[in-house]
Amino acid sequence: MTLVETFHAALSSLAVNLPRPELLPERLARACAQVLPVDGAGISHFFTADRRLPLGASDPVSAEAERLQFTAGEGPCLSAHAEGTPIVAGESTIEARWPAFPGTLVTHTPIRGTILLPLRHGLQGIGAVDLYVVPPNDVASLSVQDALAITEEIAVVLQAQSLHDRQHSDGPAWLDAPAAQQRSTVW
């Protein structure tokens, strides 16, 4: 099986325990973390310059790392979105580039590296996938090409669900993800 086929198989198997449409981002993040050599994944949606919604994460540690970027007001995901390009950042890069972020990241999680990939296709400019690594894993062990292939599939799946949901409601169900609802409550 190809990597993309393995991803879709993982996504299908996760639908048994996470069947509701608003849980699609969590299913996608978990499938991503299962097929790539990473310790976690998160998916975010940007809807204005200063508003970012974490939509789903593969696990509680990744969900915490997603939230910490809000707390710090900076981080790799925000930069990847602003620049529109993938960012690969090990611990030293995180410390040098986002000085307010690593203190909280190190205090609250075992994560020491991250790979950020903006979503493409119809979701370009409005979303990103965060991949997290915990030592002894390192960001250098991940093929960016493989990560981009999975990110492309995430965008395709989210976009397909958006088109389906537009026919039946005001917006995609994945915008009602539990993580997004929690952030909306904070706002």
Automatic annotation (TrEMBL):
<protein>
    <recommendedName>
        <fullName>GAF domain-containing protein</fullName>
    </recommendedName>
</protein>
<dbReference type="InterPro" id="IPR029016">
    <property type="entry name" value="GAF-like_dom_sf"/>
</dbReference>
<feature type="region of interest" description="Disordered">
    <location>
        <begin position="168"/>
        <end position="187"/>
    </location>
</feature>
